[in-house]
Amino acid sequence: MGNTQEKPSGSGGGAARLDQATAGSGTRSRGGGSVKKPHAQGAPEKGVANGTQRESSPAGGQQEQDSHAVDTSYLDAPAGALPPHLARLKNEGNHLFKHGQFGDALEKYTQAIDGCAEAGIDSPEDLCILYSNRAACYLKDGNSTDCIQDCTKALELQPYSLKPLLRRAMAYESLERYRMAYVDYKTVLQIDTGVQAAHDSVHRITKMLIEQDGPEWREKLPEIPVVPLSVQVQHRQKPISIEQAQARAARAAQDEVRRKEAQFTLLKQKGNDLVKKGQFQEALEKYSECLTIKPDECALYTNRAICFLKLNHFKEAKQDCDSALQLEPGNKKAFYRRALAYKGLQDYLSASSDLQEVLQLDPNIREAEQELEVVTSLLRQSLMDNTAHTPRV
């Protein structure tokens, strides 16, 4: 659909994808005429000797260049109601644009536009596309003023056409005519709310307008046209291209990632707040929800282990610490909390081993030293009790 946008610079912005195929680079004059690129005169072309075209081989010798047929079938593709010779000009412009030759593409679109006038072609839709495509070339070459003029002509032919609106908005923004850009972007979003470039630009320009015009910035805007419902319905019913479908799928995937990230951050914060309030069961549930979004987040396992420990669910606390250590083998919190879980399970030897691991990683953890003393005492007592209950032979 051509809703991709390059961030405009002071000399001009990027252009959305052209209608149907798109086109390639250079600079051309505006209007019906065109400026040919100068070529060196009199100099022999490289690889031509004695009337035979040759090219150098890697070994320094000469070998004849194989002639390869160039596929030009795209030139004969139908192009709306345009007659064949004008359709070829448009298709060639699209091809050049697609390969980054914007100046050459501009020349072809200009020839097609002039050809329509000479032949008396009355096809508003085709002329709208030609002006919109040429506007994209101007925008790519940094000529925002001519881009705006061509987009305006296109919109006179086909009101509420999406691409000319979007390209004109980008051109206005590159010229720092933010109010006009804002109006066009908002009009685009009335037609298609899925144009992410327009959403991003509206947010960006809103900040600029607030800085520029203060709290009353809305009152200084030109009137934003109301797009007829019939136009919106017609746009939604248009079949979309493969590129448009891919772009929409990519945007949907990005939106889903952002949504999940926001949900994750909120749930984790709620879990942390509940722990501070001593509501460990509720906090445990929040951390569990987080793990459905990010199952490889180590901190979630160590945080949930705290909740299990406070609820005396020592086996589950140990399992969460095991999971954390699989993700981060040197995680001090996981070792320390697993030691507490072992202590709760009365496995004092394993608890002692984990506490010693903590102190080996960081000898300055006072809590681990104190807990090791307690666990060592419990281990000693356990061994004495076992000895006392062992019958003598």
UniProtKB/TrEMBL annotation:
Residues 50-64 have a biased composition (Polar residues). It is found in: Cytoplasm. Keywords: Cytoplasm, Repeat, TPR repeat. It holds the Pfam family TPR_8. It comes from the Eukaryota. Residues 1-69 are annotated as: Disordered. SUPFAM superfamilies: TPR-like. InterPro entries: CiliaryAsmbly_MitoImport, TPR-like_helical_dom_sf, TPR_rpt. SMART domains: TPR. TPR repeats lie at residues 264-297, 298-331, 332-365. One of its GO terms (cellular component) is cytosol. This is Sperm associated antigen 1a.
